[in-house]
Amino acid sequence: MKITTRGLTQATILTTTLLFNTACFGLFGGGSVAPKNIQSTNMPTSTQPNPSLMTIAPECSDDLNSKSSCQKELIATKELKPKKMVTQTGGEVHKLRSIQGQPITIIERSNGYIFPELKNKIVILEMFGKNCSHCIKEMPIMNKLRRQYGNRLEIVALQVEGKMSPMQANALIKRHKISYPIISGETATNLQYHVQNTYGWTGVLPFIMLIKNGVTEASYRGEVTYNEINNDIRSLL
Prior knowledge:
Thioredoxin domain-containing protein; oxidoreductase activity; Glutaredoxin; 5 helices; Thioredoxin-like_sf; Thioredoxin_domain; 3-stranded antiparallel β-sheet
């Protein structure tokens, strides 16, 4: 197909006009205690591009029910892997490893998760996406909380938005100075499925659970503010 200079110029002008008039432009490429469900309303609409990943993804919509890079597909039963280990109560034992090389074991409970390697710590278990703008905006908050609470708190983040190459993972960690372990979601499909069935996670990203002593004390659907999650952490100390 032949494209003339004039036609190319008109197409460029039209494309530029459309981009400036849409929001989809911007980002790079065992107890009975029930969890408290918290839905954040602080959903930003723009982020700075990240050239280190060399990809461009649509800006996430503020509508938590919309399909975008902040809304992943749910795990189907056909995607589940055979359980290798289960507890006496039937909870699966997930033997995982972070992208940084750290072994992380997560044991299912009816009302939370146990992290044997992270004893006596409050754990933030986060589902995030590498192209989710709200997730990226939340990373400085996670880094700040980890520095603030030291060995009293750990963050375990699952990157669940498709595969991520080692180069992309290293760029993401370096760009955002991530100091907490990140797990590839494709190695933890069974865990994601359990979160879906137990906590009603619908694929909205980010999705966070605040866990202490194996019990999920709070969950957050969508981006959470520093003050909101920090107040909840302080109430657990």
